[in-house]
Amino acid sequence: MINCPFCNPDEILLENDLAFAKYDLYPVSPGHLLIIPKRHAASWFDLTPAEQTAVLALVAQAKDLLDETYAPDGYNLGVNCGEAAGQTVMHVHLHVIPRYSGDVSNPHGGIRAVIAAKQDYTNRIRR
Q1: Rounded distance, CA 106 to CA 40, Å?
Q2: Any catalytic annotation for residue 93?
Q3: Residues 32, 91, 93, 95: which is the catalytic one?
Q4: Helix-strand-coil percent breakdown of the chain, rounded to 5?
Q5: What pLDDT score was predicted for residue 118?
Q6: pTM for the model
């Protein structure tokens, strides 16, 4: 797509036949990477099984690179599918976000924090 910022990539860090990885231009943390399929597709659910496999293969390589370069204490992986989920670039991309001890005051709940009221679910656990 002509106006897609991911269809003509620059500064590729890792790649395979169907996907590539590059640093996020607006990183959440040091080392924040995006893994992007080479074919323009809007959603994770529009990818072929081979493209999904290629993206996931780069996750493992990205982790090795980030472990060596940044030594994070953990990771969040995420894909926003659709505007309601926060997707702003309509070319699917998987975020690999390194996490560091103390980078937020309460990391409990991880990605649940996208809906703040749902972050701390421990008091709602049924026993």
Answers
A1: 36
A2: yes
A3: 93
A4: 30, 20, 50
A5: 58
A6: 0.89
